Amino acid sequence: MSASFPLGPLRLLLSVATLGLAGCASSQRGTGSPRATRFPAVLSERWTPPVNATRLVDGEPSAVFAAAARAAETMGFVLDRRDAARGRLSAARRQSTGFDGARQDTLELTATLQPSGAVEVAVVFRVAAESGGMVTSALVRDRAPYDVLFARLVEGLTAVAP
Predict the structure, then answer these.
(1) CA 134 to chain CA mean position, Å
(2) What is the 3-state secondary structure (H, E, C) of 95-117?
(3) How far is residue 54's CA from residue 123's CA, in Å, rounded to a whole number?
(4) Are 50 and 139 in contact (CB under 8 A)?
(5) Among 19, 18, 49, residue whose Cα is nearest residue 36
(6) What 3-state DSSP class applies to 153?
(7) 6 Cβ neighbours under 8 A, 6+ residues apart
(8) Integer Rg of the chain from CA
(9) Cα distance between residue 138 and residue 94, in whole Å
(10) b/e sequence 54-91, b meaning 16+ C-beta within 10 Å
(11) According to the model, what pLDDT value does residue 26 have?
(12) CB-count exposure of residue 121 (10 Å: 0-12, 13-18, 19+)
């Protein structure tokens, strides 16, 4: 009596499953975050924000949060969610052309009061690009947008300060 699965596809399925499980091994080089400890270092980089994405800012938490929201808006982002009580906001800006698909940049920001009295501002920029029916998404690792946001945040705080 013949098997319902030919032997070739069964071997292929087992090989893919074995490779998938082997790729989930933990790495000692991770950053210590729960996600980073589940993936090898090469894969964890995809989900770990760049080092320059977090900075300490001196100021009143509500003023820092408001300045961060204004900084995002000056960069062309439209705020999707704004939760001042939790110090979280998200924003997006979409660009599209008829020739090369569409692109959407997103920003996730968290402002947390630290015991030292400073406010820790953590930002994550992501880019999603659609071209030819395929969508790709990745963290923005270039330092420039982070530097621009933090510079505008500090400018906004100093412009408001008496």
Answers:
(1) 20
(2) EECCCCCEEEEEEEEEEEECCCC
(3) 6
(4) yes
(5) 49
(6) helix
(7) none
(8) 22
(9) 15
(10) bbebebebeebbbbbbbbbeebebeeeeeeeeebbbbb
(11) 40
(12) buried
Q: Let me know how long the chain is.
A: 162
- Cα diameter, the chain: 87
- 129-158 residue pLDDT tens: 988 778 888 889 889 999 999 999 999 998
Query: What distance lies between CA 58 and its chain's CA centroid?
Result: 24
Question: Phi and psi for 2 in degrees, rounded to 5?
Answer: -90, 150
At 92, list the tokens.
């997006």
Contacts 24+ apart (CB under 8 A), 34-37: none
Q: How confident is the model at residue 24 (pLDDT cuts 50, 70, 90)?
A: very low
Backbone angles phi, psi at 25, to 5 degrees: -65, 150
Q: Please work out, in degrees rounded to the nearest 5, the angle formed at the alpha carbon of residue 121 by the alpha carbons of 119 and 123.
A: 175
pLDDT digits 0-9 by tens, 72-91:
999 999 999 999 999 999 99
